[in-house]
Design brief:
The protein is built from eleven helices and 13 strands. It has 306 residues and is of the alpha/beta class. The strands form three sheets. Strands 10-9-8-11-13-12 form a six-stranded mixed beta sheet, sandwiched between helices. It has a five-stranded mixed beta sheet with strand order 3-2-1-6-7, with helices on both faces. Strand 2 (16-23) and strand 3 form a beta hairpin. Helix 4 crosses helix 11 and helix 7 crosses helix 10 (263-277). 43% of the residues are buried.
């Protein structure tokens, strides 16, 4: 691959639509530009169908990104969608509309493929030998098992920070009653979508919710890094959010204001998973599914049943 070649990757998620431009840096893919639009596509789902407003919103965003691709003359670009479109009954119609009105082809990742790309993306950033990876998105949560530096298995739980907020929270910040409802629901889903259990102390986090938690934790607890969070910090942040702690709310508005309503539901997922695995600390990667998908496409790794 050419060292100075640029690649574009668009990730249509449940909460955000992200567009990154990369340069190849010995297969590590350095981000030279990143754009993020908070679309909240999971909020545009009624009776398990994406509404006309939701379809129009994603088309508008993609047409904007398409112009950037053209202006920068990016020849190689990839577009994929995850839970926001994967989990609705009219996903085929949504993809057809996007193709008709933008001229862009969008690949719909299965939950398994998303988990595999999560693994690849994190592996580019961190030398992971064994443990679990968690990716908490807006509409789904992927949990991946790694052993001997190889992908073993993954599950895709059909709930994320935004879908839980929409389902259980009527205000902005969840109440204590909302907390118990969300926790009970997640506990049940973790039983319904089991991942093989192994003894490990390693848990790695990717995705917007986990990274936002790391950023909030660093600022609020005056830590030197945003790449590690322990369970006690997650617990305390949840409680302080529910109690409307003014300093924490101000911190969140400074660090990641667009996630103030979805942060607690996402952290409840993180807390339940950490407790399930009996793991007290999580390491956070800057990489994720986008980098993994780019790596997959560039190396021409074929689909092996995912």
């Amino acid at each position: 691959m050419e060292g100075n070649k640029m690649y574009g990757v668009i990730d249509i998620g449940s909460n955000t639509v992200r567009f990154n431009i990369y340069k190849d840096n010995k297969n590590k893919y350095r981000v030279v530009s990143g754009k993020k639009t908070f679309a909240g596509l999971s909020s545009y789902v009624e009776d398990n169908l994406m509404t006309e407003a939701g379809i129009n919103k994603v088309i508008k965003i993609l047409n904007k990104f398409k112009k950037t691709i053209s202006d920068l003359n990016i020849k190689e670009y990839y577009i994929f969608a995850t839970a926001a479109i994967r989990n609705v009954d009219n996903s085929t119609d949504v993809l057809s509309r996007i193709r008709e009105e933008t001229g862009l082809d969008v690949t719909l990742l299965s939950g398994k493929m998303e988990g595999f790309c999560d693994f690849l993306g994190l592996s580019i950033d961190i030398d992971i030998e064994e443990g679990y990876i968690i990716d908490i998105g807006g509409g789904s949560t992927e949990i991946i098992l790694v052993n001997q530096s190889e992908y073993v298995d993954s599950v895709s739980i059909p709930e994320g920070s935004l879908s839980l907020f929409k389902k259980y929270v009527s205000g902005v910040i969840p109440t204590m009653e909302n907390y118990y409802e969300i926790e009970s629901h997640i506990t049940k889903l973790l039983k319904d979508y089991p991942i093989p259990m192994v003894k490990t102390v390693n848990l790695y986090g990717i995705g917007g919710t986990v990274r936002a938690t790391g950023n909030i934790s660093q600022e609020f607890f005056s830590k030197y890094t945003n790449r590690h969070i322990n369970l006690n910090e997650v617990d305390e942040l949840i409680v302080r959010f529910i109690k409307n702690d003014p300093r924490l709310l101000r911190t969140t508005l400074q660090v990641t204001p667009e996630r103030i309503h979805t942060q607690v539901p996402g952290m409840i997922i993180l807390k339940r998973v950490m407790r399930m695995f009996n793991i007290g600390e999580i390491d956070i990667s800057k990489n994720g599914v986008k980098e993994g998908y780019l790596y997959l496409k560039q190396k021409e790794i074929k689909d092996n049943g995912f």
